[in-house]
Amino acid sequence: MELPDWKQWFRKPGHSREKNAKPTPEQTLLTDIREVRRQLEGLQSYFALETDEDLLEAAIYQRNALEARQRHLLRRAREQGANVADYAIMSEELQRMIQ
Question: What is the average per-residue pLDDT within 2-7?
Answer without folding.
Answer: 54
